[in-house]
Amino acid sequence: MVGPPMNYIAGVGRGAAGFTTRSDVGPAIGCSKHEMVDEETYERNQKFDDFEGSDIGLFASAEYGEDDKAADAIWESVDKRMESRRKDRKEARFKQDMAKYRASNPSIAEDFMDFKRKLYELTEQDWDIPEVGDYSLRNKKRRFESFVPVPDTLLQKANREQNHVVALDPNGVATRGTETPVTDLTAVGEGRGTVLSLKLDKASDSVLGLTVVNPEGYLTDLKSVKISSDVEISDIKKARLLLKSVTRSNPRHPHGWIAAARLEEAVGRIQGARKLIKEGSEQCPKSEDVWSEACRLASPNEAKAVIARGVREIPNSVKLWMEAARLENDDLNKSRVLRKGLEHIPDSLRLWKAIVELSNEEDARVLLCRAVECCPLHVELWLALARLETYDNAKKVLNKAREKLGKEPTIWIAASKVEEANGKTDMVGKIIERGIRTLQREGLVIDREAWMKEAEAAERAGSVETCQAIIRNTIGIGVEEQDRKRTWVADADECKNRGSMETARAIYSHALSVFFNKKSIWIKAAELEKSHGSRESLDALLRRAVTYIPQAEVLWLMGAKEKGLAGDVPAARAILEEAHAAIPHSQEIWLAAFKLEFENHEPERARMLLAKARERVGTQKVWMKSAIVERELGNVAEERRLLDEGLKLFPSYFKLWLMLGRLEERFDRLEQAKKGYQSGLKLCPSCIPLWLSLANVEEKMNGLSKARTVLIIARKKNPGNPEIWLAAVRAELRHGNKKEADILMAKALQECPNSGILWAESVEMVPHPQRKTKCMDALKKCDDDPHVIATMAKLFWHDGKVGKARTWLNKAVTRASDNGISLNFSFQGFGEIPPSDQKHLEESSD
């Protein structure tokens, strides 16, 4: 028998481990100091440090110095930099993943969006859903009800509480008892806790047995008091007691008497109100409010006597004298009362103005002479007197006013208006200039905005010279030199918006005197003269403009155009000749001269001008205009020759290629037109009209398939172009392929989601009940597009809503006045309404 090999341990191959006992190793002995140190080192190695990580055991003996801090800071900045570079890519990838996830996992609201849109098609009968009802057993179970006898004392108490004291209404007695209303006086007694009592409790406060009330509040509140039911009777009594307490506790307080009188007036006791206010006038004889209230409450026969007592008590009250004058019936007696008041209050501006308004011109002049002596600091009186005086006396009056009121600018403005009204226009500017210098010496700050408002006021008063003088002398005050042009142009625009055209003209005139070489200011001034001036003023302005800026062709063209519109063709020719002499190589001037001759039925002169223009200027537009002239005159051979020569000189000008193709199409030479379009597309691959024209020719020659191929190639070479997509959709619709057109439209809206012409066409393609929803989607995508707005107007028009259709058409024209779709639709179709629908449409428009 062979024994086991050395160091064999049974079961070790199966994962078993050997073990030892104390008998194998002998008695226990203590470990040495070295072994304890190793054990502590091992325990320390097992610890994890937040800063060093798990490497504290490796670098336990090392010191963390400044170099280590600097190195760590550098590495930290590198990590942040790398993290920021990766952040954008992470965010983009995250957004892309979220978009894909939302596309593949739409929300419940998006799934049911189409069904929600179809809810508007449901009728009222469809929405009539029957009630389910409650069939639960808990409502069917009968509960046991027990009845307990009520004591007799409780029944007697309830009977006493429910006893009502009733009274017959007098109106019911008049009808002999039929339909007699019954008034519950017990309910009237129970109304003590109503809203008015709460208000009175809030307004009152008991202090040492006295009640303090704010009577001013009742002056407003009692105006709206209205007895609407018998419940308010107790509230009125409570208010009367409260106000009585006020007048008794403080009889010298006038507002308490006024509030008490108004309460009596509100409940219909006018005699009681007069008695109270009379007592109040005796207690408060120096209060003008009490006398005014007494005059109002008094009868017409007693009102004058009441107000007479009031002015005797308070002779310096302007309010009472004005009330006394109001009570008089004729102007003579009113003037007497006012004169009596002026004896007591000579410095009252209100009384002087009232008496002057009642007087004729001569008496008013005398009164104003006395008024300016009594009230020398009121500029209104001085100006009114100056308006009534003659020219020489007005100047004297204004000089005296200037001595009294040295810091009042309106006096200087009034002086300039006086000079202008008397034909002394040369003095207007001097007066305004001297006035501004004087005011500045007096220390008055010249407010530029305030003076501009005075200029506009002078314009409204008809004093144009004064307006211009104010603008000349104040428009530059407080404006930096570098901001003058921008500020002045903005001021002129604001004046035009407010309708102050003369002020705007004066601003432009002053701006042009400073910036005489600025073309933009000349153009704005010319536009102002064109819209609010005369032809002569516009012609004079443009003559001045071309004198300062002879190279501005737009100014020459504006002058020639205005002469042509006025029918003065020789003058327009003369202006264009001068412009040609100043700018000999201007294409626009040559074309304007040609247009003038052609529109005035001078074809030979037009041809001659274009021939000279081709020799001296020779631009592509000149060649195109030459071909157009020959086309209009019917010279086909000459038109073809000009197009061929023009294409040799300008092979990349797509309009010439278009004109050549259209020339061939006019004579049904479709093959030559196709070659012309193809040749043009080789040189102008991004020209959309050429692609569309080629597709139309292919559709005429070879049908829809060839045209579809051309449009596909066009979309590949010009991605994101809505016109090509629209042409493809309409081609399918022309051949009755509604399903293919819908597919193309969906693709087009995906590629061009903000295209108005595509959305407008998509609205036309859907059935009529769905067009309103489609229009709402279109407005969300492109709410300012004129095509969408015009389509919305068309939808309202077909629904018979004429008023809304006009509103939306006006919006479309405002958004794009050159948009042919909205303009064409807005001016057509208004006569197509059936007579039977006229009344319905008018009601809809209202």
Automatic annotation (TrEMBL):
Keywords: mRNA processing, mRNA splicing, Nucleus, Repeat. It is found in: Nucleus. It comes from the Eukaryota. One of its GO terms (cellular component) is catalytic step 2 spliceosome. InterPro entries: HAT (IPR003107), PRP1_N (IPR010491), Syf1-like (IPR045075), TPR-like_helical_dom_sf (IPR011990), TPR_rpt (IPR019734). Residues 4-138 form the PRP1 splicing factor N-terminal domain. Gene3D superfamilies: Tetratricopeptide repeat domain. One of its GO terms (biological process) is positive regulation of primary miRNA processing. This is PRP1 splicing factor N-terminal domain-containing protein. It comes from Liquidambar formosana. The lineage of its organism: Eukaryota, Viridiplantae, Streptophyta, Embryophyta, Tracheophyta.
